[in-house]
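Support case: magnesium ion complex. Customer-provided input:
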Amino acid sequence: MLEQGTISIHTENIFPIIKKSLYSDHEIFLRELVSNAVDAIQKLKMVSRAGEYTGDVGEPEIQIAIDKDQKTLSLSDNGIGMTAEEVKKYINQVAFSSAEEFIQKYQGKSDQPIIGHFGLGFYSSFMVAQKVEIDTLSYKQGATAVHWSCDGSPEFRLEDSPRTQRGTTITLTLQEEEQEYLEPARIKQLVKTYCDFMPVPIKLDDEVLNRQKAPWREPPNSLTKEDYLEFYRYLYPFQEEPLIWVHLNTDYPFILNGILYFPKLKPDVDVTQGQIKLFCNQVFVSDRCEEIIPKFLLPMRGVIDSTDIPLNVSRSALQMDRTVRRIADYISRKVGDRLKELYRDNKEEYIQAWQDIGTFVKFGALNDEKFKKQIEDIIIYRTTNEAKGSDTPSVEVQSQEGDVWQDVTPQESEATTLPYTTLKEYLERNKQRHENRVYYCTDQVTQATYVELHKNQGLEVLFMDSFIDTHFITFLEREYPDVKFSRVDSDLDETLLDQDKAAEIVDPKTNKTRSELIKELFQQALNKPKLNIRTEALKSDDPQGTPPAMVLLPEFMRRIQ
Ligand code: ADP
Ligand code: MG
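Agent response - structure generated as follows:
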């Protein structure tokens, strides 16, 4: 037996579900109504450009009004309006949107995207309202104004309206428990959160509440450095300014716009929680982007706007989504490109920014194979090599009090000149002296003597002293199996040692060698009787004097330090 047909829906059963559970958050009703109003204004522009409307478009605006006595909140636009037929078609039929039809008909007539899509947004107003009214007049010639009302049951009323102005007013009579939306402060806050960058002024008592301009939708070459900085200040007030940003702007194979900034990394910044704001057609969606941004880029800040990120699916499904994965790849590639461009074109600025971006870059190299390949040649290290003509210039770094991320020793308060190098340059420069061997220091203060010793012997030392470097050194050892990485205080170069064993001094009182005495001293001081301490006699400038000794810490102390 075969039977085919259409599944029917009982409105009276489904309606309460739409009202209660359409969205988890009641407050987004305002976002939905404003989106519709913005679309209505945009649509009027489109029909006007198509020559189908020759009347005055006027100054686009959305007016919000609160009437505490009547317990109503209303939203008026001077957009396209609706005829009685359109109200029946698009409002009375749930989940029926005019967006697609409209876009097809007026393709190319729009500089702004139409936000609507699913034909559900309007009904979110029933989450907060016991009664919803529409008063509307279409732009179409000969159209008469209509008034639609619905008290939350599936029954509606449609009648003539005395309205004379083109556009639409939606009036919500709020439910008892939703009276908070009669407070101007609450409405302002909602507009600021969701509608700040929507391209039409939204007014409450004639005060414009939203910023309107969305810099991420501007062509990158039309924005100045100050524009980017101003936008950052706007998004994250009272924060230190970022040094680098990336403007994302693509239409294919997905639509993505955005501006991402590398912030100054501070110890109190929680880098596991994303701070990037997600938008869809300039409407704020969420400030949790963990599923879309590659993990290592989570500490970045800024905005991402894409219509291709499915907003109505679960977060775990989002991670599996192919487009979302491609967007993530695209973002990390763009970030890599931007860093390489800066390294190539403005090395000084790159070095200046390295204090903050270095951690991202290393974290990225550790976590993302593709990103690692892209940026491995622009990972730089501070070095003791001060030779003129070093491949990488040095830069003035201002030390700041209490700023533990600074690459400057705590004693130094003045600007310090710090040369930087890449690993490749280091290996090349030191090929003659120590091929495939890298000397590094993990703590500029406690290892200062060791660094000095190497420097005096003409050995170049790299500083790997940021908190991520412990992992990064292990990573480098894996990446460069031929290279030996020697920490300055645990693995001395042969040329530094006094090979003449006769130089070992014996203490006449205890009859112990200096090495033995030092070992005991350390074992006692650290309360580790089995600790294996090595002492080496070093070459001395004075052949007659006592050769200096160097204490070498065992390998595992590298991990506990
Ligand atoms: P969507 O916005 O996804 O299309 P909605 O449920 O929000 O769905 O709205 C349904 C339809 O109602 C819209 O497509 C539009 O045709 C019409 N509409 C809603 N609000 C307005 C308005 N302020 N002005 C003109 N038309 C509107
Ligand atoms: Mg809508």
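The first strand starts at residue 62 and ends at 67.

Case will auto-close in a few days if no follow-up is received.
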